[in-house]
Amino acid sequence: MRARFGTFAADLRHRLRRPLSFYLTALVIIAIVPSFVFSLVILKRITDEQDRVMTALLKGSTGAVTRVVEREIEGMLTALKALSPGNQIDPADLAALHARAVAALADTGNNLLLIDRTGQQLLNTRVAFGSPLGPASDPKSISQAFQSGEPLVSDVFFGRTAQRWVYNVYLPVRTPSGQPDYLLTLTGNADGMRKAVNRDVLSPGWNAALLDRTGKLIASSDPSLAVGKPFFMDLAPALNVGIHEASHDGVAYRTVTEFSMSTGWRIVAWAKSSAVDAPVFWSFLWLSAGAVLFAGFAVAGSTLIARVLAQGVKMVERDARLLGEGQPIAPREHMITEVETVSQAIADAAQARAKAENEIRFLMREVAHRSKNQLTVIQSMLNQSVTSPESRQDFADTFRKRIAGLARSTDLMIANASQGVDFGELARNQLQPFIPDDPARVRIFGPSVRLDAQVSQTLGMALHELATNATKYGALANGDGTIDLAWTSGDEDVVIVWRERGADLSDIPSSPRKGFGTMVLERMLAMALGATLKRSMHDDGIEWHITIPRARLLGELVEES
Fold first, then answer.
1. Backbone φ, ψ for residue 243 (5° rounding)
2. Quick check: 167 and 190 in contact, CB under 8 A?
3. CATH level 2 (architecture), domain 56-274
């Protein structure tokens, strides 16, 4: 299972290998798309809420128009009732009725008519009383009014007497004998209803019209529509009020209709669907344009950032390649501080590598050089030990101890290759195997002096030989003798003093042949370091003075305070 998941992860990583600009662009898209979708949702909710508000306003507007129309008709009916108390008239007193009507209807734009069952006009305040009158212009509504016996509002028609489009409000009246033989009629000009459909009560882009029961136009806020003509759109049935969709000549319209129960007329408000939807369209368009523009800026910015990052990565890649080749690298400046930090780290690593390589080369040369020197020293030790009259066992012990001393010097030399070997540490290291149980018998003191690695090897062998001789023949050959090793450091020389006390000199062999220790002291120190040696024999032990010029130490001796 784990292997299968690992294979799937490796395949997924391979498929998703893309440039940095791809992932930055994807990040921008991931950030923008949810915001855009969220904005669309908010815009949709705002649009829906605006539609609800607009619908309520339009319904309120058409309702207001309906109320204005109904108040106008109710006012006309009230005037009719006032002119015919008890819904009665006296046919013999029409002159008085004419006079009262002219006075009552002055400045209203309305006129009074009296019509009998044959449709003949008996009275019309548009003309003087007694003027010849013809039949009324709306026989259909007159017949309906006589049949119903109730007040009736006519459709719009062209009045022959008025020579304009008018509408009538009929009130059946009786004679004193009780017969409903007449219609007291109040006629109004259709233009007078234009105030009811004033554009000021409508939302921008909307128009309204007042239609009669047959769909002919009574009044409209659109002056291009003619009164008395059928409305230019096919509308829903009269009683189907509310918001609807309609079309005319391929243009879609949004309509709102109201129905007047008292008149049977309809009030319709309409606007082009494109105009109604324009705010939503433009909001969506601006939102989309803004999203595209913002996405373009974001993608361009991410591409620019990707190029800057890629430039930094390529710069780091070149530096890493130079580091692998072992070439020197200078830190580079970059716009991105992290890239600059990596460049500085690579430059530091290159310097550290160069330094380490130099040290390795130096150490390799030193190891080769010192290996040759050690082989030479070992060969000399072997040659000197072979000619010694000691037994094989003594020869093996002596040779082994000399090799061990050489190894200790080598360990110190390797451990302190770059700083140099401290002479005090070298002395304690070489004399440690020879110190008796009472450490106070060997005293070592002097200032801190740093020795070159090769010098430390030579001096280490010299100290080893001095300690070996002291153990065999000198102060360490008994239980009471002591050794003082002291040194001083001057401006030109380093002076080392080896002083033994309490030695039994009678045990020193009288052979005229010099031992290996003396050979090391007199030949190697003198030849390798230019040292001056002075040996003094005292009653209680030997004393050596070794003076080494600082100039012969190749400047590697350093005093430390």
1. -95, 135
2. yes
3. 2-Layer Sandwich (3.30)
Supply the pTM of this predicted model: 0.51
Please choose, from the candidates 253, 251, 233, 229, the residue with its C-alpha nearest in 3D space to the C-alpha of residue 243: 253
DSSP 8-class letter at 505:
G
Indicate whether 356 pLDDT > 70.
yes
To which CATH superfamily is domain 388-560 assigned? Answer: Histidine kinase-like ATPase, C-terminal domain (3.30.565.10)
Q: Amino acid identity of 488?
A: T
Which pLDDT score, from 0 to 100, does residue 527 have?
Answer: 78
DSSP labels, 326-350: T--------SSHHHHHHHHHHHHHH
Identify the H or E element spanning 121: strand 121-124
- Computed from CA positions of residues 9, 12, 16, 17, in that sequence, does the dihedral angle turn out positive or negative? positive
Q: How many residues does the chain have?
A: 561
HSE-CB at 303 with a 13 A cutoff on CA atoms is: 6
Pairing of strands 442-445, 482-489: parallel
Helices (H), 437-541: 453-472, 516-519, 525-529
Using one digit for the tens of pLDDT, what is the confidence trace for 73-93? 899 899 888 888 878 888 888
Distance of alpha carbon 508 from alpha carbon 158, whole angstroms: 166
pLDDT of residue 152 exceeding 90: yes
What φ, ψ does residue 444 adopt, rounded to 5°? -125, 125
The C-alpha atoms of residue 218 and residue 233 are separated, in whole angstroms, by 15
Which two tokens mark 377? Answer: 């020293």
Residue 517 amino acid letter: G
Q: Where are the domains of the chain?
A: 56-274, 388-560
> In the block, which residue shows the tokens 């082009």?
272
**No. of H helices and E strands in the chain?**
11, 19
- Is the model's pLDDT at 27 over the cut of 60? yes
Confidence of residue 443 (pLDDT cuts 50, 70, 90): very high
